[in-house]
Amino acid sequence: MRADDVSRETGNQSGADLKPVIGVRRLKEPMVAPLKTRIFTIANQKGGVGKTTTAVNLAAALSMGGLKVLVIDLDPQGNASTAFGIDRVNTAGIYDVLINDLPMANAAVKVAGFPHLEAIAANSDLAGAEIQLVPAVAREFRLQAALQTFLLAKQNAGQRFDYVFIDCPPSLGLLTINALAAADEVLVPIQCEYYSLEGLSLLLETLGEVQKRLNPKISLTTIVLTMFDSRTRLANDVADNVKKHFPNELINIPIPRAVRVSEAPSYGQTVMTYDASSPGAIAYMSVAREIANRGGAPINIKNESA
Prior knowledge:
single chain; alpha/beta; Rossmann fold; 8-stranded mixed beta sheet; globular; disordered C terminus
């Protein structure tokens, strides 16, 4: 796959209130493909830290770099689906996969404007999945089983995914446990405030239990600082604190607090298509390239800006 395979999005949304796509940034240098599919769970118990924003924009950036990416929207709010312009009402989604045993291949849809990007949507029914999963057999492994079957079929067909991102709800319930059981790596977005650090502590406790009882291969490999405002002492203190305790996991490219990043989902887009030259888009592109450069290599490498 090459970066120039990525076509320019032409604005698939209808309605006078939707803003046309400003442009898709074509990458002259393709991103490095991993040796095998990397499966990330994007989680943080605290809400509003940028989990969904990070999931959709990293997925879009990696896809623009020529890599094949799948996003699973596991949050009942369905914001990742909205950012991709997916009709959540009339589209089969992850609820049907988890509860009704729908094959994942029947739920995956192409994301408009990105030939190498697919997504599995969430809808309002997913809010009841936590309760419905309680009496289910192997309830913690429903997502893992469906995902592995789907990935194997794709690989056998010569269409291997390079990356899978699972966007979790802001809780540590059964949906998030399913995501942790299905993934190899955890990516934690941390808003630059102290409450986010508390959320990280709770997530690490849960991750430890998952490692012992459900998925020994999963580990925290990536931390991304979001909504960073370099003008405030608090943001810099939080960044220094994270760097001190997680020097290898932290990607030292903070995502700035930017209006364009917040605006993009209201037009059914990621910031990568809404305004590819904005500071937020450039930062996410740099983070995506850093993640790609790390590939499957050990994490004890020196962090560098992309």
